[in-house]
Design a protein that fits this description.
The protein has helices at 2-27, 52-62, 76-85, 101-113, 135-143, 189-201, and strands spanning 29-34, 44-46, 68-72, 90-94, 117-120, 147-154, 157-159, 167-169, 174-182. The protein is α/β, with parallel strands linked by helices.
């Protein structure tokens, strides 16, 4: 019975999530702040797990035709996220930092070589919140790509009591998106981790 309910949920929940996303998007007042020029250069893209609801929409708004994929966990909630992102034409790469890590990273490198931008949540899939894993850094450094950092702040929102404190902006709120291109060239792994973490915390919701 549990498996049946999960299968039903996997079909019904993503369209509902997507509709909520679009209602918030179209009713909100949005302002985009490009801290550094982004341009048309290919990037590895990062956002915090708790900001997925709006950051992915902002990404697609800016990169309307860019081929894109996202590393998504193999957990049930990962399946829901993967199915929801497909509405935004973002292809899921299924894996995580523990299970299937090697396979999904190989898929990510293939995606980059095919011209796709790969989206990663450095603190996903299970946290700790705002923890900087090495997946995005390794992919960017080995692919010689800059990192596209996406954050936002919102005037009114709900925040779930989950490990990532998932943010749901309220309809008709004001959302400020902060975008920047970050280069990790010449940095050691530890330096790159500290630098990227600092950049991602500059304009995030506490």
């Amino acid at each position: 019975m549990k498996d049946f309910l999960r299968q039903v949920g996997q079909i019904l929940i993503p369209p509902v999530i997507y509709m909520v996303m679009r209602v918030v998007w179209y009713t909100s007042s949005k302002k985009f702040h490009f801290i550094t020029p982004v341009g048309d250069e290919q990037h590895v893209c990062v956002t915090w797990h708790g900001e997925l609801l709006m950051s992915t929409q902002a990404y697609r708004h800016i990169h309307k035709k860019q081929k894109s994929s996202a590393i998504i966990s193999q957990h049930f909630d990962g399946k829901l996220i993967a199915s929801t992102l497909e509405f935004l034409a973002i292809r899921p790469l299924r894996g995580s930092s523990k299970k299937g890590a090697k396979k999904v990273l190989l898929e990510a490198f293939r995606a980059v070589k095919n011209g796709e931008e790969v989206l990663i949540t450095p603190d996903g899939p299970k946290g700790p919140r705002h923890n900087m894993s090495d997946g995005a850094i390794g992919l960017a450094v080995k692919s010689h790509l800059p990192i596209f950092v996406m954050n936002y702040k919102v005037s009114a929102y709900w925040q779930l009591n989950s490990w990532d404190k998932f943010v749901i902006p309220k309809p008709f709120s004001k959302i400020d998106f902060y975008m920047q291109s970050v280069s990790l060239e010449g940095l050691s792994l530890e330096e790159a981790r500290e630098y990227l973490l600092a950049k991602m915390l500059e304009h995030t919701i506490p």
